[in-house]
Amino acid sequence: MALYPKAFQSLIAHFSSLPSVGPKMAERVVLYLFKQDPGKLQDFAESFEALQELKSCKRCFHIAEGELCSICQDAKREQSIICLVEEPLDVIAIERTGAYHGLYHVLGGVIESGKNETNGHLRVSELLQRVSDEGTEEVVLATNPTTEGDLTALYIKKKLEPTGVKVTRIARGLATGGDIEYADELTLSSALTNRRQI
Ligand SMILES: [Zn+2]
Fold it and tell me: What pLDDT is stored for residue 155 in this prediction?
């Protein structure tokens, strides 16, 4: 006999599959939701539907409500500088510092260590195309200071060489192995300000 009705089991399975959520916590969350009033649950369900409407910005691959993200739509951003990051959460972390006013390019991951190629899953050719089309003057490599992040930064630097664009890497202020999305704002802001040409 199942311990919970089907609707419960299904939700528990969904929540358990989320990052950092174990089966026990999933149970607690679902029980909590069960006790909420229907209006609140309806709001919650509608937020999920709205999530499905979101896209990747066709220019920089950050999260977007339409074709372009709010950063790409903002004409006041410095158009000559692109900050390359691994994931949309890194864009959010850098935006929170308020220390950067250029554009972004979300790579979509990193090269796995031990490999020298991207297997085509990273948006490298899209970056090269942008640098040539948009007359970019500087690309800031802001991949995480991990083995994979460094390897990826080196790979991108080589790919960018023929374009002649200035390439910089964020400073080593961040703890090695640490993630940009978890860095405090001051550290991240100084890592950006003290970036060096490579
Ligand atoms: Zn964009």
Answer: 93
Which residues lie near ion ligand 1 (Cβ < 5 Å)?
57, 59-60, 62, 69, 72
User: What's the CA-to-centroid distance between 117 and ligand 1, angstroms?
Assistant: 25
Instruction: Give the residue ranges of the chain where pLDDT is below 50.
Output: none
CA of 88 to the centre of ligand 1 (A): 10
Rounded to two decimals, the pTM is 0.83
d(C-alpha 156, C-alpha 177), whole Å: 19
Give me the pLDDT at residue 177, please. 59
Residue (of 93, 81, 90) closest to 61 by Cα position: 90
The rounded Å distance from CA 80 to ligand 1 centre is 14
Fold held by 74-197:
Dna Topoisomerase Vi A Subunit; Chain: A, domain 2 (3.40.1360)
Report domain extents, the chain.
6-53, 74-197
* Distance between CA atoms of residues 163 and 166, nearest Å: 9
Q: How far is the CA of 70 from the centre of ligand 1 (A)?
A: 7
